[in-house]
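Lecture 7 notes: from sequence to structure.

We start with a single chain of 75 residues. Read the sequence below before looking at the structure.
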Amino acid sequence: MAKGKNQWVVKRDDGWGVRGEGNSRDTVIKSTQKDAIDAATEIARNQSSEVIIQGRDRKIRERNSYGNDPYPPKG
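Now the structure, written as tokens:
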């Protein structure tokens, strides 16, 4: 199965956006970060990709992988 685009959860002026990596526009905008994370997680599960969550300071605060984890992990 081909790996899909990683989904980024980012702060917007009007809420929280979910954007596929490399896309120029948000896929969806939600009013809360939790709702945006839920939407990004659903997309990532369908695409076997990752969710990258930015905090209010725009720094990455969390990454979650759905279906693309090597096992056993290296290192």
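The longest strand covers residues 7-12. Keep this in mind for problem set 3.
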